[in-house]
Amino acid sequence: MSTPSSPSTRSATPMTQDELKTLVGQAALQYVVPGEIVGVGTGSTVNKFIDALATMKDQIRGAVSSSQASTARLKALGIPVFDSNEVTRLSVYIDGADEIDGQGHMVKGGGAALTREKIVAAQSDRFVCIADESKLVHTLGKFPLPVEVIPMATRRVMAQFADMGGDARVRLKDGQPLVTDNGQHIVDVTGLTIADPLAFEARVSQWPGVVTVGVFAFQKAQVCLLGTPQGVRTLTF
Ligand code: 5RP
Questions:
Q1: Is 99 part of the annotated catalytic residue set?
Q2: φ, ψ for residue 200 (rounded to 5)?
Q3: Cα 39 from chain centroid (whole Å)
Q4: Does the pLDDT at position 7 exceed 50?
Q5: Which of 201, 74, 142, 229 is nearest to 82 (CA)?
Q6: What is the reported pLDDT for 14?
Q7: What lines the ligand 1 site, CB under 6 Å?
Q8: Smallest Cα–Cα separation from 45: which of 6, 92, 95?
Q9: Distance separating alpha carbons of residues 219 and 120, to the nearest angstrom
Q10: How far is the CA of 111 from the centre of ligand 1 (A)?
Q11: Ligand 1 centre from 96 Cα, in Å?
Q12: Model pLDDT, residue 12
C-alpha cells in the first residue's frame, strides 16, 4: 500500500505541520495533467497546492473549485475557474482530509466545504488526497464528523445521531450557526466509530434533511500523499 516516493528530507529541526502541508501541496503537482482542467479542494493544505499550481498555470486550462474560498484564491493567482457544469470529466481531483484510513476512506468537511468537495470528487477519475501524517488513522471517527444539514432538519438529524451513540452539535461562527456556501448548516458529531464507512455513508445519506455526510467512502481517495518528517509517503488504494 505504501511506497516511499521522494528523497529523505530529514533535517536537524523537525518539520512543522505547515511545512509538511507545503511539501505535499508541491508533490501533488506531479498528478496535474498539462492541458487539462484540475479539480481543486478546500483547506489549508489545498492552499499550499493552489500556490504551487500557480507556478504551472500556463500549462493548464484552469480549475473546478470546491468552495468560494478556493475560487477566490485561484482567481487571485490568475488561474481560470470553471463551473462544474461546464465540465464533463476531470482526470484528477486534489484535496485534503481531516482523517484518512488505510483503504482511502476519509472524513472531510472541517472547512465546511464537504458538499461541493463530494460533487467535484464524483466527477473526477482520481482523487489524490494531500495530508500531513497526523491525518492517517486506523478507524474513522475520532475527528468530529461534519454533516451538512438543511436547517429545518437539524434537530431530528441530531436525535438520529444520538440514537447511534453520537453527540451532534451545530457548528457556530461568531455565535451563530455557520452558513455554508450552499446556505445550509453543519452539525459536527463526536463519539462515533465508523467501522464500515461505505455502510455508514449509505445509511446517513438517506436521512431526510441531510445534504451531505462527511464520510467519503463512495468518493474515496485512490492516492494519498502523506507528509512525514522523512518526506512524502505515497499511499495507493
Ligand atoms: C474542507 C476539508 C478539508 O480538506 C479538511 O478539513 C482538511 O483541511 P486542512 O488541509 O486545513 O487540514 O474537508 O471542508
A1: no
A2: -65, -50
A3: 11
A4: no
A5: 74
A6: 80
A7: 41-45, 95-98, 108-114, 117
A8: 95
A9: 10
A10: 5
A11: 5
A12: 61
